[in-house]
Design a protein that fits this description.
With about 220 residues, the protein is of the alpha+beta class. It has helices spanning about 1-15, 25-45, 50-65, 75-85, 120-135, 155-175, 200-205; strands at about 70, 95, 100-105, 140-145, 180-185, 205-215. Helices cover about 50% and strands about 15% of the residues.
Amino acid sequence: MRKFLIGTVAVTLALSGCANMSDTQRGTATGAGVGAGVGAVIGGTTGGGGGQRTATGAVLGGIAGAVAGNIWSKKMEQQKQSMEQATQGTGVQVSQTADNRLKLDIPSDISFDTNRADIKPNFRQILDKFAEGLADNVATQISIIGHTDNTGSDAINDPLSIERAARTRDYLTARNVASGRISVYGRGSHEPVAANDTEVGRAKNRRVEIFVAEPQR
């Protein structure tokens, strides 16, 4: 079984690294390989049958792994393109993540002033367009994550990051996005994307990230 597991991991890594694969295909291949490995372990440790049970577990695990996770549908691609057009030249980064989520990375000069959670006018325009896209794809779930720089203590930054995410959620729900679709989180200063020893770096860390996922149905 050890040889089988090593082979499974090798195939998984090879498939997930193929340059010609789309993000969706790569995620499916990785899920299949991981699922196969887990299935093999389960099959090999649940009673008799030896290699046959291990192989069966690998097949079933591979099937489960391949269909798990998020999908990237035509609607998701349309919303991505719409947000790219709406945010062009604003500094907002729109991308498709490795696990097939739409990500909006909104910097502080668009979203919030220092030590504030009030949504700025430029951010409202982006959220208005974003809400329109969410209305066209009601199967999606939204995660909003607030961040701060390291100025001040965790006692200040942690609740401030949550408040920023919550204000963003409230703005969307006021535009008919169901609150049950939205989860909010605050990371304070704990997940910087740049060094905090310059003003430019601190500005990059004061941000809001919005993720949209359409789970496999």
